[in-house]
Design goal:
Strand 1 and strand 2 form a beta hairpin. This protein has one domain. Helix 1 packs across helix 3. It is built from five helices and three strands. By secondary structure, the protein is mainly alpha-helical. The structure holds zinc ion. Zinc ion binds next to loops.
Length: 164
Amino acid sequence: MKYAWLVIGIVAARFLTTAIAYPQLDGDLAWQRRLGETILRTHAIPRALGDETFTAAGAPWLPQEWAFSVLGALAGNGPGFAVFAGGVAGAVADSLLGASIQSLRWCQQCARATERDPHACGSATRPLRGFTWFGNDAVNFSATIVGAGIAFAGAAIAGTTPSH
Ligand SMILES: [Zn+2]
């Protein structure tokens, strides 16, 4: 499958982006992979964080986060890990774009920032920062392209081209 790696890269990017959106997630990648390996070995998904985390023991986890850990473990080394790295790059791009040029608006009624116009409360919002044409969808799209690109490049460097 010529585009198999591309698809996996996009999935990885989306998983990691989702993970970063939840502040309780530990961002350490090595730890994430070890977690995934544990799940694969025991065929069980723990219901809460264990004491191996230093920040949030006992915090509830979402299925996407476990799926991401398993994905990281499955990726292994070489081209697989390149795809995993692509997911990381995609998430970083997502964060950078979201914090810089992504459109952010302000609802005077609620006195809070929002991406929507009108706001959920019904009030019109005014531009706060970023480009008005560069919304959340544009950020997601761009981050996915970056992640897939890194995954492709990394896989090629690792000695296995995506088309093989
Ligand atoms: Zn509002």
